[in-house]
Amino acid sequence: MNTRRPGEWPAGLRPVPATSSDETAEQPSLAPPVQVPVPEVRLVVTVDLTGRYDTHDEVIRDLYEQTRYSTDCHTAIVRLGADALRVSSGLGSAIASRFFLAAREVEIHVPAGTRWAFVAAEAQQHMRHYAADHAQLLNQTRAPG
Fold this sequence. Notes:
- This protein is an alpha/beta fold.
- It contains 5 helices and 3 strands.
- Strand 1, helix 2 (about 55-65) and strand 2 (about 75-80) form a beta-alpha-beta unit.
- Helix 4 crosses helix 5 (about 120-140).
- The longest helix has 24 residues, at about 120-140.
- It is elongated, with a radius of gyration of 31 Å.
């Protein structure tokens, strides 16, 4: 007859104790886990304003149309052509207004040898102003406490 009581392991058969992940990592016989680097993916939006423009309104309209459905992105690249720079004053402000909340970085590309490098400084100044204004608005509308 069987001398084993209910709930008792049969003679000679014992369960293998489970090891924790810390104990497994310390055992030299196991190979270390393989680490595979995950590349960072960044969304970059490109706006091309290098076409032929005759008025300021055409440049602003094209900027608006190209950014109408854009989403938040890491980097916005705005390529400006000679015509866009020639006919449009306040282009830095227009670029800043489109991307100050949507992009972490904004690059403004101008044709080499032009005197329009100040557009980037103008956009940066307006971005700071718009961001500060937006922060002030959020702080005023936030419920106290």
